[in-house]
Amino acid sequence: MVLLGMLWRDKFAFFAALFLILATLCAIFGPMLLRDAAVAQNLRARNLPPFSLENGWLLFLGADALGRSLLARIVVAAQNTLMIAAAAVICSSVIGALLGLVAGYSSPRVSNIIMRLADVIMSFPSLLLAVIVLYMLAPSVGNIVIVLAITRIPIYLRTTRAEVLEIRQRMFVQAAQVMGASSMRIVFRHILPMVIPTLVTIATLDFAFVMLAESSLSFLGIGIQPPEVTWGLMVAQGKQYLTNAWWLAFWPGLAIIFTTLSLNLLSNWMRIVLDPVQRWRLEIGGKKNG
Question: Angle 126-136/141-167 helices, nearest 10 degrees?
Answer without folding.
Answer: 150
